[in-house]
Design brief:
heterodimer; A: 133 residues; alpha/beta; Transcription Regulator spoIIAA; 5 strands; 17% strand; B: 288 residues; Globin-like; 5-stranded mixed β-sheet; 63% helix
């Protein structure tokens, strides 16, 4: 089954969604991500959705859920690179994604996370970024 | 089609035109500012010629028949041009009504002795001209609608310029009332520009919005939320005291939105956020 890779960068987790999400993939991502946050004690989650061109209310909810769950596990969520059409759709659907931080691109998102959590830019960690299987 | 009618009209074509012209020129609603008398005469002559030539060929007075197409085309052309030039419906209507008047007048003069024939022919002419009037009006209104549609498009395009005031700061002055379709255009162009320039701050200046009701406020909130989703910050500036009053009286919650009184203060805020500083320089700028 397809999975979205979750990369670890120091105390942050990086998720790049390169395909259009379908419901099951999104649910798997939600479950995997929460597991990873718990396992790695990550302080921040960065989700790059610049390649996502279609969203529906379910997807919007999943993103909101991920943010709330991470918050409970003491990690901030930043969604970066949202397409204009996606933003308009979410607003029209009445999903302003409260509680989710946003940034224009990955670089700015990283800076935002670093500022929020107050840690230095993570150094090259010894163990490699690992991917859930 | 009776030959009598055709013969009379063919013979008296000149009289009809002259009489029609005199009626038009003596009319109060004559618009010499919009059309010259020469042009009016050319138009009228063309129409009379086409109409009378057609009466000879056409076996029926049924306007659906193909043979009527040239006349309808000429009439439609005149009508649409008038709509674009800004003639009023009354003036356009008078154009065709005076033609009927002059044809009836000529008929009356020619077949005075035979009341029955006169009545019969007049009825035919009446029916024909009434149909032509309806066509004139339909095309006139169509022309007016085209003008309105074009203007609407132009206004919505002109009125949503996204200005790049600084590296990373966009400004969008909104002028005129915000409705759903305009909000859509505003939102789309703003978000598109944010992606293209990678700007982190957008200033929405509403000093040109005459009034804010709950619907307009909702549209504004939508735009602000959409920019936030993209990862940019949106500031609303140019809120006039009356608008602030209405917003509070309507119970609209703008507390989650950064609002500034003027574009200048919004810009100052944006500079602070971007950690930029504007200072008076001690160095005298060279004069050009």
């Amino acid at each position: 089954m397809d999975r979205i890779p979750i990369l670890r960068m120091g105390s942050f987790l990086l998720v790049t969604i390169q395909v259009d999400l379908y419901d099951r993939l999104a649910l798997t991502l939600e479950a995997d991500l929460v597991q990873m946050v718990n396992k790695t004690q990550a302080r921040g989650v960065l989700i790059d959705i610049s390649a996502v061109s279609i969203v529906d209310s379910f997807m919007g909810r999943i993103i909101g859920n991920i943010a709330s769950m991470s918050k409970i596990l003491d990690a901030e969520t930043v969604v970066v690179g949202m397409q204009p059409a996606v933003a308009i759709t979410l607003i029209e659907l009445g999903l302003p994604l409260k509680g989710v931080h946003t940034a224009l691109d990955v670089e700015k998102g990283m800076r935002l996370l670093t500022e929020m959590i107050g840690t230095e830019q993570p150094e090259e960690s010894e163990d490699d970024d690992y991917i859930t299987d | 089609m009776s030959t009598t009618l055709y013969k009379v009209l063919q013979k008296k074509k000149k009289n009809i035109l002259e009489y029609w012209m005199s009626l038009q020129l003596s009319d109060d609603g004559l618009r010499e500012d919009l059309i010259t008398n020469e042009d009016l005469r050319v138009q009228s002559e063309e129409l009379v010629n086409a109409l009378i030539a057609n009466l000879s060929e056409a076996s029926s007075l049924d306007l659906q028949a193909e043979s009527w197409d040239p006349v309808i085309e000429i009439l439609g052309g005149i009508s649409i041009t008038r709509a674009r030039q800004g003639f009023s419906p009354r003036e356009t209507g008078n154009f065709i009504f005076t033609l009927k008047e002059s044809i009836l007048q000529v008929l009356n003069e020619e077949i005075k002795g035979q009341p029955e024939v006169l009545f019969e022919e007049s009825r035919k002419i009446n029916r024909l001209m009434d149909n032509l009037s309806v066509i004139t009006f339909e095309t006139f209104i169509k022309g007016r609608e085209e003008v309105i549609l074009r203007q609407t498009d132009e206004i919505s395009e002109i009125s949503t310029p996204v200005i790049r005031v600084w590296d990373g700061i966009l400004a969008l002055p909104i002028i005129g009332t915000l409705d759903s379709s305009r909000t859509q255009v505003v939102m789309e162009s703003l978000l598109q520009e944010i992606v293209e320039t990678g700007s982190g701050i957008a200033i929405l200046d509403i000093s040109g919005v005459p009034a804010v009701d709950s619907l307009v406020a909702q549209h504004l909130i939508k735009t602000v939320s959409a920019t936030r989703l993209m990862g940019a910050e949106c500031i609303i500036s140019g809120i006039r005291p009356e608008i602030a009053q209405t917003v509070v009286h309507l119970g609209i919650d703008l507390s989650n939105i950064i609002t500034k009184a003027s574009l200048a203060s919004a810009l100052a805020y944006a500079f602070r956020t971007l950690r930029l500083e504007v200072r008076k320089s001690n160095i005298v700028a060279p004069k050009n």
